[in-house]
Structures are given as C-alpha cells and as structure tokens.
Amino acid sequence: MNTTRRLSLAAALLLAGPATSFAQTTSPWNNKQCAVVLTYDDAIDVDLDNAVPALDSLKLRGTFYLIGSSPVVARRLDEWRQAAKRGHELGNHALMHPCDGSLPGRSFVTPDNDLSKYTVSRAVSEARANNTLLSAIDGKTARTFAYPCGDLTIGGVKFYDQLQKDFVAARGVTGGLQTPAQVDLTNIDSYMINGQSADYLIDLVKKAQQSHTLLVFLFHGVGGGHSLNVDLKAHRQLLRYLKAHEKDIWVAPMVEVAEKIKAYQLSAGKKQG
Predict the structure, then answer these.
(1) Structural domains counted in the chain
(2) Is 226 part of a structural domain of the chain?
(3) In the 8-state DSSP scheme, what is residue 179?
(4) Which of 17, 85, 136, 182 can bridge 178 by disulfide, Cβ–Cβ 3.0-4.6 Å?
C-alpha cells in the first residue's frame, strides 16, 4: 500500500471513529439523540380528558400508570382500552397504591394502604392482580411498574425483586438523566413535575439531547385534578417541542424504551464477557 493510500485510510478511520461511537451511544434511542418518556400517574380523569387528547393530537405516545382500584379505571374502562389501542402503555401502579405511612409527611396514608404494614407477599400479589386486570383491558403481557410514592422496600426488603419476571422494568421518583449503561431497570430515574414552567420542561429535554441520555417525566395532574399539577399550556408547549424535534428525540412509552435498554445492556454485557 503506497503512502497516499495509507494516509487516506487513516483519515477515513479517524473520521469514522466519532460517528461510530455516536451511533453506538445512541443506538438504544433508535439512532436519535435521546429518549423521552412521558408518564402519568394514578389513573385520574384528567389523564383521559386532557393528557391523552393532547398526546393524540400530535401522534405522541405516553405511559399511564393505573391504580387498579381507582374508580376512574372501572368507570372509563373502554376509554383506557381505546388509549391502549392507539399505542399508549397502561402501566402498573399497584392495585391499592400502598405507601409507607411510617415516613414523614405521610398523613394521607390510610391504615388499609400502609405499605409499612404490608407483607412482601401481599405487595407482590396485589401487583400481579393489577397486571391481570390491565391485561384484561389491553390484551398485553409486557408492561412496566411504577412504585407508589417511590417506596421500594417493606421492612428493608425490596419487594420488586420478586416481580422482575412480571415486568420489563420499574420507574422510580429520583430525578436524573442517564445513559443506557447507567439506567437501573429496577428503579428508573424520573423528574416529578409540579408547577414548573414550560421553559424548565423544555430545558430538561435539551439537556438530554446534549448528553444523549434518557429523560422520564412524571406527571400527575395535567391542567388540574391532582395536588401535583402541570399547567395545560406548559404541558402543551413541551409536547410541541418534542414533536418539532422528533427527528432528534425518540418519544415512546416506557415499556418500549426499557426493552431497548435491556437489550442494549445484555449485548454490552456479552461483549465485556
């Protein structure tokens, strides 16, 4: 090989290096800059009245974490089924939404729904019962879990350890942006939103784009309906930004993103092994 060809080959390899690295970094995000997951907790009326129509209008899909015992599930069963048919995930937020009443600021926890009084087997059984209910609604078997109140343990034992075969992943409540390798699929980071501006929401997305990371939003009320709330206009502006930049941002339900991350981590583990 002559000197000119060697130099040309070396230049080509140098140019290909960063592109290959970038593609590997972003491959779990469908070869886009980042992934954004929009999650909505508690199965409340505004999910169906405000959030789902806003997403549908822009052909975006989200994850709705349903409490099985919520009257809004029973009363609006067909609407949840139709939402699932349009590509939204019906996630599992437990049957009774038990929270640890022994922690500070938990006066809202009733004796019947106090996770600190649960056994691990009860928590596991109720989560599985909710899966049965959700499967009856949407006909699906793959879905994700969201910890009620972000509580992970009962008597120091992580109850989700017994549920890992029942779910693709579980979402927590700790804010953070993570690369595919950093994501803990048993406790995925998320940003809980309560009153923040559209600028704040969009800035988080821009940071995820720059760092090629996963960004999960955790909403409750959208335009009311819950003490934790995001303004309708702010929510709409966020969705419009995501839609306007969809060539760079992968917006998908949690179950799809988690499946991609799981495959990525398994592949990376095999390569290291």
Answers:
(1) 1
(2) yes
(3) -
(4) 182
